[in-house]
Write a structure and sequence with these properties.
Residues 90-244 form the Pseudouridine synthase RsuA/RluA-like domain. Its EC number is 5.4.99.-. It is a single chain. The chain is 21% helix and 27% strand. It is an alpha+beta fold. The protein has three domains: 3-65, Roll (Structural Genomics Hypothetical 15.5 Kd Protein In mrcA-pckA Intergenic Region, Chain A), CATH 3.10.290.10; 69-165, Pseudouridine synthase; 166-309, Pseudouridine synthase, CATH 3.30.2350. α1 (18-26) crosses α2 (30-38). 36% of the residues are buried.
Length: 309
């Protein structure tokens, strides 16, 4: 049942953005605050604000909080096709297959990396929320490739900090439509939830800073294979940035890909693979890196587009 909350803006929040003020008052993320504002569930002195409006001390807030949604716990069961690239007492690196989420989320009923590791008997760090223990970064359910999970509490702390401080080398290969101009470049554009609220993300003024570096490996007649390095790790970042360049990942219909090209190449999801992952080992301090091969569906599509050229 939704909960109605009414209260004045405290003096300490004078001049804050509405979404930031809500985040501090109620303890949820600014993204969640922006969703409530966009849904008309927030009033400031009786009026619906924009998320970037500033609040003044003493202004009256009326907020309708939705009922809490319980996040499902991981189901410990082996995940077919998920292979172990590397494992020691601190970390396990997997090659994540298609159709597998990193951890349980509301609305996801499929397999997860976390559940697969637990089901195969691997010890995982207990740090973090129970439904995503040991998870230090994520890949989309239909993005394949290298993903690291912490096994020790020390490794969890170390890797979370490394990802936050951007000292991890995350590289992806993406087959995108057309030919980016220039062939090598950087996309520096903030990302937030799409205003439509349909689950997509978008380049949005005032969103979270997001930086993607790309370089063309091979150009084909109708597509390009890119090497992509992420500085930040926003949800759907590569997919959003490539779409913003008008060169969406082949097969990524959510972000504007041409379905006829996807059908011709036999691709049923975005052509995007986390090809390598490198970071400082949490215990030894040694730089370690891991590579993964393309899965069968992506390799077949690449072979086809290469043959057509």
């Amino acid at each position: 049942m939704a909960e109605q909350r009414s209260l004045p803006v405290p003096d300490g929040l004078e001049g804050e953005r509405v979404d930031a003020a809500l985040s501090r008052l109620f303890g949820f993320s600014r993204t969640r605050a922006a969703e409530l504002i966009g849904a008309g569930e927030v009033l400031v002195d009786g009026r619906q604000p924009a998320k970037s409006d500033r609040v003044h001390a003493g202004a009256w807030l009326d907020v309708t909080l939705p009922p809490p949604v319980s996040t499902p716990m991981p189901v410990a069961e082996p995940v077919p096709g998920m292979s172990i690239v590397y494992e020691d007492d601190d970390i396990v690196v997997v090659n994540k297959p298609i159709g597998v989420a990193a951890h349980p989320t509301v609305g996801w009923t499929g397999p997860t990396v976390l559940g697969g590791l637990l089901g195969a008997g691997h010890t995982i760090a207990t740090s973090g929320a129970a439904e995503r223990q040991g998870i230090v970064h994520r890949l989309d359910a239909n993005t394949t490739g290298a993903m690291a999970v912490a096994k020790s509490e020390h490794a969890y702390s170390h890797l979370k900090r490394a990802f936050k401080e951007r000292t991890v080398d995350k590289r992806y290969h993406a087959l995108v439509q057309g030919h980016p101009d220039p062939f090598r470049g950087t996309v520096d554009a903030p990302i937030d939830r799409h205003p439509s609220g349909d689950g997509r993300w978008a380049v949005v003024a005032g969103g979270k800073a997001s930086i993607t570096h790309y370089d063309t490996i091979e150009a084909f007649r109708a597509a390009s294979l890119l090497d992509i390095k992420l500085e930040t790790g926003r949800t759907h970042q590569i997919r959003v940035h490539m779409s913003a360049l008008r060169h969406p990942c082949v097969g990524d219909m959510m972000y504007g890909a041409d379905p006829t090209i996807a059908a011709r190449l036999g691709v049923t999801r975005q052509w995007l693979h986390a090809v390598s992952l490198g970071f400082e080992h949490p215990s030894t301090g040694e730089w370690i890196s891991f590579g993964t091969d393309y899965p069968e569906d992506l390799q077949k599509a690449l072979d086809t587009v290469r043959a057509e050229s």
